[in-house]
Task: inverse folding
């Protein structure tokens, strides 16, 4: 498996991406943090206990763009996402090998503080999980524990507005976040993530519980957020990946391994347009045209 | 093998339909056992209390209630006496309330702290398993053993007279505190385990520290369960007699304790002493004491339920 061509870096980037040049070898060249990928994994493998879930994954997440992760169920999309904010630390027996960089700094090393890392790399989970507290507190809590000193009510309103939830909840901010509908809860979770102003937002199938209207709103929101944030989104919805993302990584299950274990690998990673119109890997093509997966 | 697939199913409709109600009825009977035993017990105690010369007929509920109230009020205000007309439980009630406070102050923080450590901080492994098993075993140790332990450890301090507490409220409270510690630890651990991991993940993903997650999410959600376990433990402590007899609450004491370093007696101990007396008047007084104890326990549970409801309404955990 070889690295894809250098991802198309957004227009605002200071250093133009050299096109056609082969990708750098595992050890990344020292680039100024502002120019390089905000997140990157090189030859990353993840084990749960003794079973290998993700093998030799190399991916660079470009700044201020939306990167979609697609692939069949169980191929390790959530696993990869959890590596970026070290949520895998919480799973007993989970182990990673390889290099994961955030702004050029290794995040798996023991002297990286996962608490500080998770503040910079927010996460929206697949299942809405609001706190059993008031709507206001749901949004305010993360900011408060991170020492936010500004006007809390303003921050709550701004975050809820950005998550397209404000109009629905502005009269009942004191009500429990658990009383909202599933789709509203998911947008509340997005608002809560925005309130701590992370640099990267990892979204694990954020729309799988949402109706088409809420989905459209979340997609609009992602488009808005792109200018300030980097977004990585896992989705099972090809159309969604096509609509919202700039880059797409297609993960696959590696079939031909000795012990019959199915292991996740990256089949293809390129710009979304290219991947959907002209897939290089036959497995990708089969997957996006709906013939497997 | 050649039978058509549909004949492989035998839905046993009759049995399935009957099994539910039968099971339900059996469970109802089980519930009834407890309720019946409890009402018979309470009824017989109240009957004993009211069984004095010159009482009203049983159907005169109003006068009987007033009588019962007057009698219990008298018992609460009087102190121990050889004369049944003057005997009461005042000293024991105050002693028991003192014990309650001391036990709560000692056992609740230590118990919850130990449970939080075991569930949240202790690395999983052999040591943790050993501690866990031991705590479970401690919950089953007979209370008299705790009395002996309290006598040796707190009352006598293994013969180190300068450390010995003597037969004081401190010694009694600490002994009862040790007694209910395992109950509180186990109940708190159970409550902490019910906190969904998605909640922890949500908080951690915002950049919270472990401590902030425990303080703001884990403990509040677990609080109703912790409260239930704690009140159960405290109720047990209030009703215990045997360990208190061991650590020196036995003597007949005629004045109120002036502080936790004072000598004391407790309500169950006084009930026990009155019940030992041969005359029937004293068994009436003992029954009255039991009623007071029951009222005390019920009001403790009521407080717990009140706090719990109020709390779960405000956060909806
Ligand atoms: N906590 C865990 N403990 C053990 N194995 C796990 C754990 N989480 C995931 N796995 C395994 O890792 C592999 C990848 O799982 P992962 O959740 O990353 O898949 P996914 O691509 O997100 O799938 P889906 O699209 O269904 O969400 C699976 O084989 C799964 O069984
Ligand atoms: Mg997943």
Result:
């Amino acid at each position: 498996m070889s690295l894809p061509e250098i991802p198309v870096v957004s227009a605002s980037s200071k250093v133009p991406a050299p096109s056609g040049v082969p990708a750098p070898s595992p050890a990344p060249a020292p680039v100024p943090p502002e120019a390089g990928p905000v997140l990157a994994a090189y030859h990353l493998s993840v084990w749960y206990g003794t079973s290998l879930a993700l093998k030799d994954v190399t991916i660079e997440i470009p700044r201020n763009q939306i990167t979609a992760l697609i692939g069949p169920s169980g191929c390790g999309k959530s696993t990869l996402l959890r590596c970026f904010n070290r949520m895998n630390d919480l799973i007993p027996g989970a182990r990673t090998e390889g290099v994961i960089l955030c702004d050029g700094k290794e995040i798996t090393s023991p002297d990286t503080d996962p608490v500080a890392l998770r503040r910079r790399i927010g996460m929206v989970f697949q299942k809405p999980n609001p706190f059993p507290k008031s709507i206001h507190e749901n949004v305010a809590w993360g900011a408060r524990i991170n020492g936010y000193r500004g006007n809390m009510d303003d921050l709550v309103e701004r975050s809820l507005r950005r998550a397209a939830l404000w109009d629905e909840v502005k009269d009942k901010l004191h009500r429990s976040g658990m009383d909202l509908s599933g789709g509203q809860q998911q947008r509340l979770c997005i608002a809560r993530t925005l309130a701590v102003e992370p640099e990267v937002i990892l979204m694990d199938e954020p729309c799988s519980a949402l109706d088409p209207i809420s989905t459209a709103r979340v997609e609009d929101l992602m488009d808005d957020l792109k200018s300030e944030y980097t977004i990585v989104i896992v989705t099972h919805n090809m159309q969604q990946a096509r609509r919202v993302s700039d880059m797409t990584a297609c993960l696959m299950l590696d079939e031909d391994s000795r012990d019959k274990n199915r292991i996740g690998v990256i089949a293809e990673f390129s710009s979304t347009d290219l991947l959907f119109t002209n897939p290089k890997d036959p497995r990708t093509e089969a997957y996006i045209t709906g013939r497997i997966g | 093998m050649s039978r058509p697939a549909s004949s492989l199913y035998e839905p046993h409709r009759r049995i399935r339909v009957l099994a539910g109600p039968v099971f339900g009825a059996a469970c109802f009977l089980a519930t009834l056992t407890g309720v019946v035993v409890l009402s018979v017990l309470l009824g017989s105690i109240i009957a004993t209390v009211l069984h004095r010369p010159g009482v009203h007929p049983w159907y005169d509920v109003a006068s009987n209630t007033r009588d019962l109230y007057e009698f219990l009020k008298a018992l609460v205000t009087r102190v121990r006496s050889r004369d049944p007309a003057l005997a009461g439980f005042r000293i024991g009630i105050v002693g028991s309330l003192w014990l309650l406070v001391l036990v709560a102050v000692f056992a609740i923080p230590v118990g919850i702290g130990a449970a939080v450590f075991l569930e949240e901080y202790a690395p999983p492994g052999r040591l943790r398993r050993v501690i866990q098993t031991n705590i479970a075993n401690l919950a089953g140790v007979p209370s008299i053993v705790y009395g002996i332990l309290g006598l040796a450890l707190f009352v006598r301090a293994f013969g180190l007279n300068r450390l010995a507490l003597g037969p004081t409220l401190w010694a009694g409270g600490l002994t009862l505190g040790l007694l209910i510690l395992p109950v509180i630890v186990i109940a708190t651990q159970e409550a902490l385990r019910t906190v969904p991991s998605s909640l922890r993940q949500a908080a951690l993903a915002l950049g919270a520290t472990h401590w902030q997650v425990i303080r703001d999410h884990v403990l509040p959600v677990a609080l109703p369960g912790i409260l239930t376990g704690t009140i159960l433990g405290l109720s047990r402590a209030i009703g215990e007699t045997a360990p208190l007899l061991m650590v020196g609450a036995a003597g007949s004491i005629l004045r109120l304790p002036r502080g936790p370093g004072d000598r004391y007696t407790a309500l169950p101990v006084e009930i026990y002493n009155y019940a030992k007396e041969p005359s029937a008047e004293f068994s009436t007084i003992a029954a009255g004491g039991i009623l007071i104890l029951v009222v005390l326990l019920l009001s403790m549970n009521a407080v717990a339920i009140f706090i719990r409801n109020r709390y779960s309404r405000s956060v909806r955990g």
In short: The pocket of magnesium ion (ligand 2) is lined by residues A 77-78, 126, 204 (CB under 6 Å). Chain A touches chain B at residues 85, 87, 90, 92, 115-120, 122-123, 125, 127, 129-133, 141-142, 145-146, 176, 178-179, 189, 192-193, 196 (CB under 8 Å). The longest strand of chain A covers residues 51-61. Residues 182-195 of chain A form the longest helix (14 residues).
